[in-house]
């Protein structure tokens, strides 16, 4: 069966009476994780929406709410299919949500479950594993069903899969650990923190071609690039593994610093190949140096045979906190930019007014 093959090691729900088999698992008696409810040709390998609806109406009629974590346009559906009991908390596949979205999801899910002891929630993304696991693990932490991120991740792996590999993307695991810190160490975590990224070091140099690589850093915020090394510094440096570690300075072409805040995704490329990527939130960066081991880096973690990255590979990011003087300068810069924009709008408005006056004048002359 194609659907069973696509599910790989994920646990499936089977019901002979209803004559259905779904990529779906009860993580707890009141929390379901499942794959995307599909229509048309995609039902060959994904859960048919009609079967999902039949299952929910049979087992939890009038007492379920569906949470869609997909941001892809083709992964949306009419909420009336599930009687309007649908909430969307969208973020990209293999990625992390904005950190604040996690709390919003948890509060909404908890509120619904508290309304009636018969209520259940059904959480899905596309495959119903990574994004779904991230949010469910955080909910288990939020409601204190498990005390630590590690225990939540282990339990989810057991409940969702046969091979204990439920949540496997390093950045997604990191965000569950962040959430644990926010619950138990809130007094030590700043509400917001702006940092300057000074440089990054890869040790040892990865081997992608000709015995080394030409690293290019791209930084994204809300999926929008805010820094691209090659645009700021068009000539890339080639590094070789025989030389050991490599360090790349990070700055804009005018010498101004690269300032980061909140959720940021960083991707390090070699030519057109994504060597590694990772998402962090600056609130949780405690030291000037953030060291990430190979197993903490998306993409790099997949190099099991160490052909591209050494087994002891690590990436070090060097940050600097923004000083009060720098903050004041930045605020002043932002204030001036707003004033310029305001003046431009005002000039545009005055120009339109003058044009209208001219039109009115010529109309009067022609009458």
From TrEMBL:
Protein family per UniProt: Belongs to the PTEN phosphatase protein family.
Keywords from the named record: Cytoplasm, Hydrolase, Lipid metabolism, Protein phosphatase
Annotated localization: Cytoplasm
GO BP terms in the entry: lipid metabolic process; regulation of developmental process
Catalytic activity: 1,2-dihexadecanoyl-sn-glycero-3-phospho-(1D-myo-inositol-3,4,5-trisphosphate) + H2O = 1,2-dihexadecanoyl-sn-glycero-3-phospho-(1D-myo-inositol-4,5-bisphosphate) + phosphate; O-phospho-L-tyrosyl-[protein] + H2O = L-tyrosyl-[protein] + phosphate; 1D-myo-inositol 1,3,4,5,6-pentakisphosphate + H2O = 1D-myo-inositol 1,4,5,6-tetrakisphosphate + phosphate; 1,2-dioctanoyl-sn-glycero-3-phospho-(1D-myo-inositol-3,4,5-trisphosphate) + H2O = 1,2-dioctanoyl-sn-glycero-3-phospho-(1D-myo-inositol-4,5-bisphosphate) + phosphate
Top-level lineage group: Eukaryota
Keyword Plastid: no
This protein's name: Phosphatidylinositol 3,4,5-trisphosphate 3-phosphatase and dual-specificity protein phosphatase PTEN
InterPro entries: C2_domain_sf, Dual-spec_lipid-protein_phosph, Prot-tyrosine_phosphatase-like, PTP_PTEN, Tensin_C2-dom, Tensin_phosphatase, Tyr_Pase_AS, Tyr_Pase_dom
UniProt lineage: Eukaryota, Metamonada, Preaxostyla, Oxymonadida, Streblomastigidae
Domain Phosphatase tensin-type: 13-186
GO (cellular component) term, any one: cytosol
EC id: 3.1.3.16, 3.1.3.48, 3.1.3.67
Region (Disordered), start-end ranges: 324-367
Domain C2 tensin-type residues, every copy: 192-322
